[in-house]
Amino acid sequence: MSEQVTSVTFDDVVNVMGEFGITLTLADDEPIGSANLNGYNVTFALVNNTAVIVRADKTTEEKVADGNPTFFLACNHFNAYVHSTKAAAVNRTEMVIIRTECEFIVAAGLTHEQLKTYLKSSVDNVLAAQENVAQLAASLQGNGNTESEAKDTDN
């Protein structure tokens, strides 16, 4: 017997992450939660009951004021090769933040197993993307293999 497709609520997202042993810190009045996973601030959001966004942020040691384009170039290179997850260098704080993000559509509803699979894949992808961008940045700075390309995180 197959599971029934139901609309996805943010409580469903919280419960599935709990099944993985991850407790989300919830926002007061928005369907948003976050957790520290492997040193990355990972945020989960349900947008208008149509999509779930999973986003990982990591603050670098690079000052925005220094104007070093390395992380911006690394994100651009990553985005040229990987389509399931996107990367951006955020310059709205004192230090550059690397943000990786993916989303999946839930508007038509999902089974519990589908939601679980999508959340696991999304978390794996945003964390792998963070590592890829860091490796690309290191290679651009001459601290790694200059022939390095983004690893395909598409599942």
From TrEMBL:
This is Bacterial sensory transduction regulator. It comes from Corynebacterium durum F0235. It comes from the Bacteria. The lineage of its organism: Bacteria, Bacillati, Actinomycetota, Actinomycetes, Mycobacteriales.
